[in-house]
Amino acid sequence: MDRFRTIIEPFRIKSVEPVRMTTVAERDEKLRAAGYNLFNLHAADVLIDLLTDSGTGAMSAEQWAGIQRGDESYAGSPSWFRFLDAVTELWPFAHVIPTHQGRAAEKILFSVIAGPGKVIPSNTHFDTTRANVEFTGAEAIDCVIPEGREPATIHPFKGNMDTGALDALIRERGREHVPVVFVTITNNSGGGQPVSLANLRAVREVCDRYGLPLFLDACRFAENAWFIKQREEGYADRSVPDIVREMAGLADGMTMSGKKDALANIGGWLAMNDDAWAEQCRNLLILTEGFPTYGGLAGRDLEAMAAGLREVVQDDYLRYRIRSTAYLGEALIEAGVPCVQPIGGHAVYLDAAALLPHVPALAYPGQALAAALYREGGIRGCEIGSVMFGQHPDGTETPAQMELVRLAIPRRVYTQSHIDYVIEVIRWVASQAREMRGMRIVEQPSALRHFTARFEPIE
Ligand code: F0G
Description:
alpha/beta; Aspartate Aminotransferase, domain 1; Aspartate Aminotransferase, domain 2; five-stranded mixed sheet; globular
């Protein structure tokens, strides 16, 4: 096998979903009608949808078989026990609390442990995590290593926590105000960058010094484990499930979106060792999600995650997964298109500020680039820049730290020729960069504007 270099998709296709071809003129019209906001498009008008890798994956025959097997008993369903076994085989926490997706787990946990005056440090909070922390009146603070904030800096574990900054923060605010330390694996907001086991151990030491629990936002844990196997000394011969269990052993709990590395279209969970916290979380779960053996999910959804968890840690899958994301990124870098480097696990992040230096941040270079990718090639990505982060509650606006367009790769959905097409479109758009103009906002809500704001091109 080693004689051949091509890493093929480790599956064949049994069921297909047609994608509808559209013309530039048609897409131009759709774009105008959508107010140049790609969230407003009908997905049927998108050719290659790279808006998110969340819940957009293709399920396996085993997972569909599980869907059929799903037992919908209200309490104590066999599907629940199969799910529990699959989770605890990798994450042997004492309590597993199923939720309908990741943010529901966050909402429940932070309702119990956060609140006014509290501080929750993380390498980088994902936006729903930050929002759920802040909703309780607590503060969410990012302590990623400095390299993690620089798009062009190469570092094997760019998602690592700056443990010095973490230690200083805990000392400054007082340990009694820090209910938990979070680490996001991989670090989505920082470019899908992994965290090393050495770093997790160092974070654990800081937590032990102050008697604090460590939780993982583990959405993309399998991708993180694969990077550890590839890049961290001493792990090349360890199995991915072993690496995951080692991560689990360093933590006291986790929040999880099953829409990522459980290879499901919906689902999530909250897990922890602390009995008192778990009891309070379960009480809230019953208010908003459901009984503790289904938590906002159908039995069939629990089955899909159980099967997905067994598939996601397989070497063939992860080798293909990480390679196919890198394939896109490397082709773009080779063509001189600026990207966040190294390429992350689930997405390629285009650096719109570097590609469009003539477009000021508050003329939204990321939004302009995302609109152009749709217009020229029917590709839908997502602006992660001043549209998403520039607006403040007091009505003021400042540029974001970076102006990125994220191209997130759904799991097991697109083939290499789809990605070759994406590369061709981006190269063409990049060759026209000097001609591109910025955008102005013509209508926006008072918060979370990236979902609904309307734009027009600046002439
Ligand atoms: N944490 C991280 C790191 C995430 O990336 C997400 C979702 C969540 C938590 C929330 O999980 O969607 O199941 O409620 N990320 C998606 C994305 C939406 O597009 O990156 P959820």
